[in-house]
Amino acid sequence: MAPLEISQVSELAASILDEVETAVIGKREALTMVLSGILAGGHVLLEDFPGLGKTLAARSFAQTLGLDFARAQFTPDLLPADLTGSFIFDQRVSEFSFRKGPLFTGLLLADEINRTPPKTQAALLEAMQERQVTVEGETFQLERPFHVLATANPVEYEGTYPLPEAQLDRFMLQISFGYPTADEEWGVLQRRLARRQEEQTLRPVIDAPTLCAMQEAVERVDVDESVGRYCVALAAATRSHPHALMGSSPRGALALMLVARSFAVVAGRDFVTPEDVKAVAVPVLAHRIAVKPELWMSNSNGASVVAGVLGSVATPAALEVDSRTDAT
């Protein structure tokens, strides 16, 4: 496939968001963050109350991006082999053959990831990080694109296995949709009445090769040194914040730069500004921060720490918009 221009990526991104928003109403900002994470090559954790569209958003993105879609409902008895697949003895040929699990897909919805034991979580996280699975000593590569949209319920703790900070760090972003406004909620009801059926199917705007081409185009966007150092300074500031027991890792600074770059492209620009970094800072950094135990009953959390460092770290001078052309 021919390389895409940044302007083409921006136009496709807008079309994708328009199509997804026909199903997930009034959540353009959150949907933009999810798409930015996908274009940056990462995985997204959706943590919110039940019934706010997490599963619908994941399925909508899979349809609109033209990706193979699989859903794994995480339960306490889910085994790693239920995700990775396993070797099955084929009596017809008298040998073992590998039966692929739901990890072998383009977009995986890992529903209620905190309901399954750490061993199964680890199998998923290996696939997320290494883009491969290992079964009985044999390694299988996962084809690109491969993205995980995982959901977690923040209000039910009985029978759950919360992800430790080291595993949360593997998610590029953590996003919450929040409750809709009254008008948005009525819009949901109106559209349900109009289509006269529960199921809704979105049209594919792109396909898997086009998504890979979009990701490759985003990789060609340059990031000014001042913006990169701003990402480093923000991540470092979370480690010295008085409320933080543990701040962001260097992986957080890298994710901040990568997501800000994708966010800029979705916004229609071929350069990254400090405002792009600020826009994505909370969903990228907040889940990588642990607050001190004595503050858990207060309003202090990862998001408040990020808000604090955004107010204290000096913002780089505004970047001049140069005319980036091929002429040199």
Describe this protein with a few key phrases.
alpha/beta, five-stranded parallel sheet, 12 helices, globular, disordered C terminus
Written overview of the protein:
- The two termini are 26 Å apart.
- This protein has a five-stranded parallel sheet. Strands 3-4 form a two-stranded antiparallel sheet. A two-stranded antiparallel ribbon has the order 6-7.
- The protein has twelve helices and eleven strands.
- Residues 320-328 have low confidence and may be disordered.
- By secondary structure, the chain is α/β, with parallel strands linked by helices.
Q: What class, by secondary structure content? A: alpha/beta
Biggest sheet overview: 5 strands, parallel
- As residue ranges, the low-confidence spans are 320-328
Q: In which range does the helix fraction lie? A: 40-55%
What portion of the residues fall into strands of 2 or more residues? 5-15%
Mean pLDDT: 87
Number of helices: 12
- Can you tell me the overall shape? globular
What topology, given as strand order, has the largest sheet? 2-5-8-1-9
Short structural description:
The chain is built from twelve helices and eleven strands.
Layout of secondary structure:
Elements: H1 6-20, H2 28-39, E1 44-47, H3 54-65, E2 69-73, H4 80-84, E3 85-90, E4 95-100, E5 107-111, H5 118-130, E6 132-135, E7 138-141, E8 147-152, H6 165-168, E9 173-175, H7 182-195, H8 208-219, H9 225-240, E10 244-246, H10 250-266, H11 274-285, E11 290-291, H12 302-312
Parallel strand pairs: 1-8, 1-9, 2-5, 5-8
Antiparallel strand pairs: 3-4, 6-7, 10-11
